[in-house]
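Listing S7. Sequence submitted for prediction.
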Amino acid sequence: MKEYPRFLTEDSEPFDPVELAKKTEEIICKGSKRKYTDFYCVGVYGGISTGYTVGCYLRCVFCWVDWSRDFPDRIGEFYSPQEAFNNLKQAADERRIRKMRISGAEPTLGKQHLLALLELVEDSEFPTFILETNGVLFGTDKDYVYKLGRFKKPHIRLSLKAGTPETFERKTGAKRESFEIPFRAIEHLKDAGVSFHVAAMSADPRFMGDEERVQLIKKLWEIDKELVYDLEEEVVDPYDTTLKRLEHAGWKVDFPLRERWDPVRSVLRNLQED
């Protein structure tokens, strides 16, 4: 990797996401501390206190996260696990909310920080902790997943980006050979007994064609049929950062979305018949 990739352009060279993860951790982690941009409550999940992390190892063209994803060296502040927990608790207490979440860029960066933070959550009065991830580190580090499996409160939302190796590379910038890694993460989470569900940008025909959507759903079906029944299908929203990333990558996309795919049930009928 010649230089740190910021966002995709039309002539970007595919990168190794595991190698980029290591380079990113060198920027955003200091021992058990890691970088965040902010802590506050939002309305999703019925109201949840959220810590927004800095840095990622994918460069998804439709990403909504602020510029801390692309410039982790310039944005954010370091917090210890205790400081991060205190900020999450303060935001939750102010709004009388009993759920916590780590979201933003890629929360699984900084293994030492995250596991220490989960220890604090486990010993707290908060019953629910949601972790949002693209799954690559869980797919390459089974020990990470099994350590996560010791805790009772976390629920993982694992977001898949594509249904084929070729589209994975085009949409994330990561080498197509890494396409299978998030699916290995799903198998690791199942084996470790961790609570999770899968999300995918699969209800948006501007970013996932019909055949690609079917291929993604088939892959999940082969791992566990329940993954398909519980699949959270997403569409892309026109955040300012999203629009800029699409422009840099040479994608021409119309907003708002005028029609979306039928619910996944239409694909399920065919799978059940097979």
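Caption to Listing S7: primary sequence and predicted structure tokens for the chain studied. DSSP finds eleven helices and nine strands in the chain. The longest helix spans residues 81-95.
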